[in-house]
Amino acid sequence: xxxxxxxxxxxxxxxxxxxxxxxxxxxxxxxxxxxxxxxxxxxxxxxxxxxxxxxxxxxxxxxxxxxxxxxxxxxxxxxxxxxxxxxxxxxxxxxxxxxxxxxxxxxxxxxxxxxxxxxxxxxxxxxxxxxxxxxxxxxxxxxxxxxxxxxxxxxxxxxxxxxxxxxxxxxxxxxxxxxxxxxxxxxxxxxxxxxxxxxxxxxxx
Length: 205
Hints:
With 205 residues, the chain is α/β, with parallel strands linked by helices. It contains 7 helices and 7 strands; from the N terminus they run αααββαββαβααββ.
């Protein structure tokens, strides 16, 4: 059974304070997205798209599929698409990012923005992203994730087990999430003023 607390939080209070909370880091998110090498006609998957906070930073000559489990988030996102005239290039759908209905090797790019700290099972969700991204495709991770050298797993994993039942965890380790998958980290960029968040550009082998 999926985490009820997490699902309730993303269908009640979070959609309404999220835009204001994310506003200070919007320039950093935009900078991270600009690390990607977009081409006209690219297909881009944005799991956990929420209200579409990152959509304006993506070039308008690519096709975007945004998925989320929150009806409220998606409803607000669709209003935003109409306001900014992005309905032709962006499709928003209700979908569990840990089990997506897309075929293997469908997308050229994936943008995981503040996503891996909120999904219930980060490794399972990342496996789905790797599955649907084409070989040679780019995966952007913009999130608060620890590195293996920064905290002992003996401490991080038990804490994360508890925090995963809330709406977000801040103790997940990037190396643990991507370990064993055919990806390499190509670039990194600072994600906020304090260095709490980082942007990681990965490429699928």
